[in-house]
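Q: What structure does this chain adopt?
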Amino acid sequence: MVIGRLPRIFYGWWIVAAGFMIQLLVGALLNQAYGAYVVLLQREFGWTKTMLSGAYSLTRVESGLLGPLQGWLMDRLGPRALMRVGMLLFGGGFIAFSQIESAWQFYVAFALMALGSSLAGFFPLTVAIVNWFERRRATALALMSMGFAVGGLLVPAVVLMLDHFGWRATALASGVLILVAGLPLVQMVRFRPEHYGMTVDGDPLGRTAPGATPSATAGEPADFDAAQALRTPAFWLISLGHGAALLVVGAVMVHLVSHLHGNLGYSLAGAALIVTLMTAMQVAGQLLGGFLGDRFEKRLIATLCMAMHAAGLLLVAYATATWMAIAFAVLHGLAWGTRGPLMQAMRADYFGRRSFGTIMGFSSLIVMFGQVSGPLLAGVLADRTGSYESGFTILAALAGFGSVFFILATKPRPKAATAGASLRQAAGAPGD
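A:
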């Protein structure tokens, strides 16, 4: 059956719109607001930066380890079933967080929030969008991901609530909002267009030649399965480059506000303004990345972004003037926004749609090390030295070196033998 009350609008764009709003909830309420919670939790409980960054890092381990299973389930059941569970955990975790009184309770509540946002957020949304788009895949992924960045623009509003109502009331309200708004948005997500009588990119039915996959018709190589993808250098190089980028991204999300507030002397509101500028640049970068990614070599764009990540982090690590913090926000925000959607678009371009969730899940095992190590390394060195300078310098150097991985990540040869299996998977999988 054909979905949608407005047939002139390809239903894939409605999935992008729902994904945008879900990512906005995740970005505004958890990931990009976490730095502000760190400051207030330290103030109330006296917990160290290492302990607070450890909570973030442990949840990344959890997400990474579950990635292959999560991807395998989505390739077979579709993303929506897991997203429903995830949204319940995400909202319930925030409600539990509002009631914590000890470190172990914080770890449990934060684990629920992180697991829920993973099951309901970027991973399943990416799997869905990759299956609905090919020609404008980078643009669709960029627009969906933009919700996360726009959520960052709302961080000053979250900080205002934290200041006026306290972190407990803010956390409780966040949990309720997630349940009320998030669950209906999840219902809009669908898996593959073939299940609903449609085609990738909304092309007219019948354009695909008999016996060919929709992706192959449009010039995309026949799909790899997970085992075939794991045997290619491209899989490992993209994953290592992605992980190197997240060394910086994870450290910034957890520690930027603490660095600006505690080391550079910014007020909490002033630090939030730097975060706002950074996320505004992220929005601009995502628009730019979607446009460029559908037209130019994605790996070369990602290489440039890695250099921008490194330069930005060095600027804020040794900032002695406001312009240096502003330059960091511009460079890091543009690099993050431009590079982010290209990571998944590259994987889909290289390996196809059929086992994309499983391939992305295995990649998360490697990417996880960047997500975990960045915040933890910065937190440990800050506790020992009283400054983020040494930690941020090491992470910037590693991110700069990571650009080499993208330079080397050339496209693998097509696996034509899997074309028939791709068609059977696309046509016969259960609808979601």
